[in-house]
Amino acid sequence: MIMAEIVGIARNGTSKTHIMFKAHLSFSQINQYLKLLPRIGLLEKSAYNGKVIYKATQKGLDFMEKQKQIIDMLNEDVTETN
Q1: What separation, in Å, do the N-terminal and C-terminal C-alpha atoms of the chain show?
Q2: CATH classification (class only), 2-81
Q3: For the chain, what are the domain ranges?
Q4: pLDDT in tens, 4-36
Q5: Which of 4, 29, 37, 72 supports an S-S bond with 42, CB 3.0-4.6 Å?
Q6: Rounded distance between C-alpha atoms, residue 69 and residue 48, angstroms
Q7: pLDDT tens column, 41-73
Q8: DSSP letter for each residue of 41-67
Q9: Does the pLDDT at position 81 exceed 70?
Q10: Statement: the pTM of the whole predicted model exceeds 0.70
Q11: Region class of 47: left (phi > 0), else alpha (psi between -120 and 50), else beta
C-alpha cells in the first residue's frame, strides 16, 4: 500500500521531502522506497532547477490503479459476507 501511496503523491512530480511528509514516513524509510521505486520502474528521478524530483511513471500509475482494484474487490467480498 505504501508504494502505491508514494506513486500517487508523486503523480505530477514532487520532492523527497513532500513525499516523506505526505506519506508519514521516516527519513530512512523514504530513502529505501526512493531507491527501490525508480529501480523497478514505478517512479522516475530527475533534476529540475537544481532539485531532485520524483515523478510517477505510466507503469507506476498502472500499479496504483491495479492495487486500488484489488482493494475494492476485497472490500466487496467483505461487504457481501456481512
Answers
A1: 24
A2: mainly alpha
A3: 2-81
A4: 999 999 999 999 999 999 999 999 999 999 999
A5: 37
A6: 33
A7: 999 999 989 999 999 999 999 999 999 999 998
A8: TSEEEEEETTEEEEEE-HHHHHHHHHH
A9: no
A10: yes
A11: beta
Pull the grid cell for residue 45: 528521478
Q: How is residue 60 written as a grid cell?
A: 507506476
Pairing relation of β-strands 51-56 and 43-48?
A: antiparallel
DSSP 3-47: HHHHHHHTTT-B-HHHHHHHTT--HHHHHHHHHHHHHTTSEEEEE
Q: How far apart are CA 81 and CA 77, in angstroms?
A: 6
